[in-house]
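Support request from a user on the community tier.

User writes: "When I paste my structure tokens into the form, the page sometimes reloads and wipes my input. The last time it worked, I copied everything first. Here is what I submitted, just in case something in the input itself triggers the reload:"
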């Protein structure tokens, strides 16, 4: 039995507006058509359109002022975490440099939350990582394990903001990680990382945890480029 709740009209309208913005039909800085005209174009009622636009304004996509045209905001500069989560649902329209930018941000954050997690909960980090040796050599399995590891590390860091930021691109992570982990070198790099992080957790060595996390985050940038380009890397380099 399928218990999936079908999208509401306002949610569908919101998604269509975001598509139009990302495709450049409504460019950044432009004004949307008048409410009556836009509702007609989208085939929805004006209350449904208003609900969708209010949701988009909340997250930083639109700027709404009573009596004035609705403006498409520069969501890259004026948006919030809601924009990140929403963009993740429209991954087919992402600019080419979006994932490298995302990986760079993770490179800045992950060493810190890994360090904090091992400072505060080394035994729990170790308990999670002990299962990595049984991980099937499949991209989907690595993608799932890697997500759960980073999610657990953010929680164990004691700072919930790390978890909220990570959750912001949850929907984007799985398909992107499956592409990343299709390379044997990517899986080899992560295996080495899991082993080093496990050893650091068992030794209560937060300094090493921070260092090895930074190292693998830097390596992931070049591995991602190789995965996108359909090339392979020297797996022995990451052992």
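"...and here is what came back when it finally went through:"
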């Amino acid at each position: 039995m399928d218990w999936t709740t079908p999208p509401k009209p306002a949610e569908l309208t919101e998604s269509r507006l975001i598509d139009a913005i990302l495709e450049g039909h409504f460019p950044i800085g432009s004004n949307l058509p008048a409410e009556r005209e836009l509702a007609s174009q989208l085939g929805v009622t004006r209350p449904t359109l208003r609900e969708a636009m209010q949701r988009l304004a909340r997250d930083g996509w639109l700027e709404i002022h009573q009596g004035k045209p609705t403006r498409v905001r520069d969501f890259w500069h004026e948006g919030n975490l809601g924009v990140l989560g929403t963009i993740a649902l429209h991954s087919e329209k992402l600019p080419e440099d979006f994932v490298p930018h995302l990986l760079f941000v993770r490179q800045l954050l992950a060493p810190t939350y890994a360090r904090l997690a091992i400072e505060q909960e080394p035994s729990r980090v170790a308990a999670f990582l002990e299962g990595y040796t049984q991980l099937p050599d499949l991209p989907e399995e690595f993608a799932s394990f890697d997500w759960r590891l980073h999610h657990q590390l953010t929680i164990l860091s004691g700072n919930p903001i790390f978890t909220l930021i990570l959750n912001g691109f949850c929907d984007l992570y799985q398909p992107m990680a499956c592409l990343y982990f299709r390379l044997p070198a990517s899986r080899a790099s992560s295996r080495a990382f899991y082993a080093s992080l496990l050893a650091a957790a068992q030794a209560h060595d937060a300094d090493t945890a921070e260092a090895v996390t930074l190292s693998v985050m830097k390596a992931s940038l070049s591995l991602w480029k190789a995965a996108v380009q359909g090339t392979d890397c020297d797996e022995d380099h990451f052992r």
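Agent notes: The reload is a front-end session timeout and is unrelated to the input. The longest strand covers residues 62-63. The radius of gyration is 21 Å. Escalated to web team.
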